[in-house]
Amino acid sequence: MRVFVTGATGWIGSATVDELLATGHEVIGLARSDKSAETLAAKGATALRGDLDDLGSLRAGASRSDAVVHLANKHDWANPDESDRAERAAVETMLAAIEGTHRPFVVANGLSGITEGRAVREDDPSPAVGPGSDRGGSENLVLESKVRGIAVRFAPSVHGAGDWGFVNWLAAAARKQGFSAYIGDGTNRWSAVHRSDAARLIRLGLEKAPAGTRMHAVAEESVATREIAEALGTFLGLPVRAVGADEADEHFGVVGGFFGQDLIGSSARTRELLQWTPTGPTLVEDILSGAYRV
């Protein structure tokens, strides 16, 4: 297939491009800069200049392809309404370009805000509906459209060497504050998945998942936040201690609000449906082996 990938040089997107190319697919990758375009070209992908606000480029990329993988997001923490607006407009534009073709369209989402008190399952619908909701309600928008809509919900930690996401922010906070912290008693839990396993799942979904599938990129269902903090402390040679919920924002910054939550999901149905078996290292193994070395 010729696959249009947004976020093609991002953390998950770059691994997805590698996975698609290695298994014989063609890739058109959205590139926001000359450097990103050069990176894609060096891999053997075709670069399409543009960003999430360039609806013309998004329309062209989708219409020229046999499938769409939408991984880009503005992640404007200071202005989440703008991120949600841009996400909605981008997804509507790409869907309109392939509406009625039954081409696969994979859209990214997270596990947060879907259920409380238990792991999110694949049959749990996202409560985000409509333009003003989280991520512009893009998961439901895709699943309800006349394409082969597929949602991939990512664990809060998609880890590996070079990760610049949440765990990298936790490590940066530990270095800055002089100790690695967890919130309260540290029993809040996160799911985790290695980046290579997430990329392989996206490829399997494109190839085999039926319309309406929700895939969970979750290798480890439950890792205690205290265990994450202790692994970071061990690797960084820093003490480990608790901080109160009222201290979390000061210690961690933006990631503090997430680190105090249970963000867990089951991938049992995903594994059965797609014969997906994660093989990458665990989150703690990655931390202790130096994945978050400066």
From TrEMBL:
Domain of life: Bacteria
Domain NAD-dependent epimerase/dehydratase: 3-81
Record SUPFAM superfamilies: NAD(P)-binding Rossmann-fold domains
UniProt xrefs under InterPro entries: Epimerase_deHydtase (IPR001509), NAD(P)-bd_dom_sf (IPR036291), NAD(P)-dependent_oxidoreduct (IPR051783)
Signal peptide range in chain numbering: none
CDD domains in the cross-refs: SDR_a7
Gene3D superfamilies: NAD(P)-binding Rossmann-like Domain (3.40.50.720)
Region spans: Disordered: 118-137
Pfam families: Epimerase
PANTHER family: NAD(P)-BINDING DOMAIN-CONTAINING PROTEIN-RELATED, PROTEIN YEEZ
Protein name: SDR family oxidoreductase
